[in-house]
Amino acid sequence: MIMAFDGSSIDGSAYLDVVRAARHAPGWLDGAVSFWSTYGLAVFGVLMGLGWWWARRAGAAAAVRTLAVPVVVLAAYGLDAVVKSAVREDRPCQSLRVKTLETCPAPGDWSFPSNHAAIAAAAAVALLFVSRRLGAVAVVAALAMAVSRVWVGAHYPHDVLVGVVVGGLVAALSMRALTRWSGPVTGWVASTPLKVLLPPVAEDDGTEAAAGAGVASVSGGRHGPA
Hints:
Blueprint: H1 8-23, H2 27-39, H3 41-55, H4 60-87, H5 92-95, H6 115-128, H7 132-151, H8 157-180, H9 182-190, H10 207-218
Helix pairs in contact: 2-7, 3-4, 3-6, 3-7, 4-6, 4-8, 4-9, 6-7, 6-8, 7-8
């Protein structure tokens, strides 16, 4: 038998309050939250695609930043999965034996931290380095994803909170490092088959200046998150 951690002593009462509220909420609200909890991550993929499409006009460095977003998200997911396997916390629906909107996962499908929250937070923070507008939309979507995972009963509040922290930190550190080493990384990408995803290189000497000006436009005039 696999020994698992019971996280109900941390914020089990808050979890039960949310689950009870969901049980008495209008059907349309529960349906909308459940739909978002299940399929909402696809929105972040759309935002990444839009970021890449718009950044191509700003130059190679901006395009490379957008290409890094899914890589950063995968890194955040990987770290989150490692922590999840190390902690091995039972799902709250198992520990508290409560009926939830989402079908209770089987034993061994650990709860802490939340993969959904980590992925959403990583995408949101990374997109802030690409575009302030897209990043702002992604931040709202990430918060909605974190709340929805508790609402449907899949996670304790501390599961999604730590998931957001893990995803956000991985994204912030990775994107800052990429910004610092933008030149070498862009040059390396341009030498690989991924160069087809970069904008055509201008033949005049003002390419870098134009790229810098374009990045400022795409990111709202400043690099990085506020």
